[in-house]
Amino acid sequence: MVLLHSPLEEPDALRGVRDALRGLGAHADLAEITDDDGPPYAARYIARAALEIRRHAPPAPVVLAAHGEAGPLLPQIGAAQRAAHRPVGGYLFVDALLPQPGSRTRAELRTTQLGTEAPVPQAPGPARERPAAFATEPLPMVADWPDAPCGYLLTADGPAAGARLAELRGWPVLDRSGAEPQGAAGGAEPEAVAADLLELLRTL
Which domain of life is it from (predicted)? Predict the structure, then answer.
C-alpha cells in the first residue's frame, strides 16, 4: 500500500499511519510530495507521486490510498502505474474528494461533493498554503476509470458526503464517523486508521 497525503498537508500527516500499517505486518510506503508548489499543481503532484512510488518499488499489485484532496488525482496516478507496468490492485479513499468525469476544478468538486468551497478536513499539523489558482485549475481525468476496486474510509472528522457518493457508486464504505476524534489523520489515531484501511482492503 502506498499512502498519498493531501496536497494541502505535509507528508508527516500520514507517517504515523504508515508506521502503524507496518506494525500490523503490511508492506506500506508513504509518498512524500513537497515540490509541487508551482502550476500546474495537479500535474506536478501526479508526476512526483509516480517518482516516489518508483523509488519505493512496492510489490505488485500496488494499492493506492489517498487522503483528502489527493483523492481526485488517483486516476492519473494509477494510469502512471499502469504505464510503468505496475498493476494497481485497488484504490482507497480516506476522507477524500472523489474523482468526477470532466475537467473539474477543486473548487467545483468541493461545491458539488461537500456543498461548500471550504477544503475537506485535513489531518492536524502544518497546512500547506496554496494560492487561489490551486483551487481553480482543471484537474486531469482518465478514461475508463476505475480500473481496480475502490473503497472509502470515513473517519470521525471526514466529509459524510464523500462516503455517500462512494456508496452510490457501489463501493464498500467503512463508516467510523461515530468514533471519538483523537487527533491524527482524519481525526483518528494512526493505529485505528491503519486497522480500518486493512479491513476495508479485505472487502475489495
Answer: Bacteria
What's the pLDDT score for residue 191?
A: 95
Q: Decide if 204 contacts 174 (C-beta within 8 A).
A: no
Q: Where are the domains of the chain?
A: 10-195
Contact, 101 vs 141, CB < 8 A? yes
Grouped pLDDT means (10 residues each) for the chain, 204 residues: 94 94 98 85 94 94 96 96 95 94 86 69 61 89 90 87 93 86 60 97 96
Smallest CA-to-CA distance from 150 within 120, 173, 168, 122 is with 173
- Cα–Cα distances (Å) from 196 to 32, 120, 154, 178, 189, in that order, read 22, 20, 10, 14, 11
Q: Which fold has domain 10-195?
A: Rossmann fold (3.40.50)
Torsion of CA 68, 169, 202, 81, to 10 degrees: -60
pLDDT on residue 169: 95
User: Which residue has cell 468514533?
Assistant: 179
Tell me which residue has cell 485535513. Answer: 122
| 123 φ/ψ sector (left φ>0, alpha ψ -120 to 50, else beta) | beta
What's the confidence (pLDDT) of residue 64? 98
